[in-house]
Design goal:
This protein is mainly α and 317 residues long. It has 4 domains: 94 residues, Arc Repressor Mutant, subunit A (Orthogonal Bundle), CATH 1.10.10; 78 residues, no CATH class; 80 residues, Arc Repressor Mutant, subunit A (Orthogonal Bundle); 43 residues. Helix content is 67%, strand content 4%. Helix 7 runs parallel beside helix 9.
């Protein structure tokens, strides 16, 4: 591939990097991908033939990593493939186009002014100062304002959204968008809604961990297993006291499988059993029934054997 630029002496030359790169691309990109981009930016000033294999050796990166990096920056629109190589797009032009595209027509100042309240404007500025050190990219202003309108979050929830992403070391749009979607699907609008959601999640995690521990599962529960637990606890309204009875029964029968445990608990729910006493009474009744059945079978077997013996004795006479 060929990267072209006016050639200058290395001693007096410098490589210019837009501040937009630091606010829009660096936080989300893989470190090796950034390494590839910076070196390609440097090489773009010189009219040289550059091969991926050369980049791999020069940067001490595996060949597939360099390939993935090039693909990544292509998808971001920073690298544009040409017939004879690649051209590095101007990051400032890309961000300017985003900012003033038809779907977003307001400037950062307009976005704040058009907010529904001064509280919203205050929240946006708090996000800027707390999570971007006061140098938040202009495009973030519009995104935040759009998220306010799309999800109906109050100002505290929006601040919590960025705080959550910051704590997870994932302060980039894709993660924030995905988290906002998840919160919205759980009907979160106010900070009280969010607190209830976190409390429910904490209870779910606690129960999941307790069940895993009791079953000696040294792995993460699957999505389907977690859904079963939600069904037992939230749909059926069962606590760990009843669930543990099913876990013990599964363990004693060497059937430590979620489908077996789910069958037991679902059966109890269908039989309208709501307490440990009711469940144990039901299980004891099954034991008594089974015991009586075995007794009847034993008597029948003894009677049959006795009759057979009597018949045998007829032939002894």
């Amino acid at each position: 591939m060929k990267l072209s630029h006016n050639e200058k002496s290395l001693i007096f030359s410098s490589t210019e990097l837009s501040d937009m790169f630091f606010t829009e691309y660096l936080p989300e990109a893989n470190g090796n991908f950034i390494k590839v981009y910076l070196y390609m930016l440097f090489l773009s000033k010189y009219n040289k033939e550059i091969k991926i294999n050369d980049l791999s050796k020069t940067l001490s990166l595996d060949f597939p990593i360099v390939q993935d990096a090039i693909k990544y920056w292509e998808e971001k629109g920073i690298l544009v493939k040409k017939t004879d190589g690649y051209t590095l797009a101007n990051i400032q032009e890309i961000e300017f186009a985003k900012l003033y595209s038809p779907k977003v027509t307001s400037s950062p100042e307009d976005a704040i002014k058009s907010s529904q309240s001064q509280y919203r404007a205050k929240a946006i500025e708090n996000i800027n100062s707390q999570f971007f050190q006061g140098v938040m990219s202009p495009t973030w202003y519009n995104d935040i304002n759009l998220w306010f309108n799309k999800y109906g979050f109050d100002e505290q929830v929006m601040l919590a959204l960025f705080s959550y992403a910051y704590d997870k070391r994932a302060l980039h749009r894709n993660y924030i968008q995905a988290t906002a979607d998840a919160w919205s699907k759980n009907n979160i609008k106010t900070f009280n809604d969010l607190e209830n959601y976190f409390e429910k999640q904490e209870k779910r995690n606690s129960i999941n961990n307790e069940i895993s521990k009791k079953l000696n599962l040294y792995r993460k529960l699957t999505t389907y297993e977690e859904e079963d637990i939600v069904k037992w606890t939230e749909n059926y309204g069962y606590g760990m006291d009843i669930i543990e009875i099913a876990l013990k029964k599964a363990s004693s029968n060497n059937k430590v499988r979620f489908d077996y445990i789910d069958t037991l608990i679902t059966d109890w729910h269908k039989k309208d059993l709501h307490s440990t006493d009711e469940v144990n009474t039901y299980l004891n009744s099954l034991k008594d029934k089974d015991k009586k059945t075995k007794q009847i079978e034993k008597v029948a077997l003894e009677y049959t054997q006795s009759t057979f013996d009597n018949l045998e004795s007829l032939y002894d006479n």
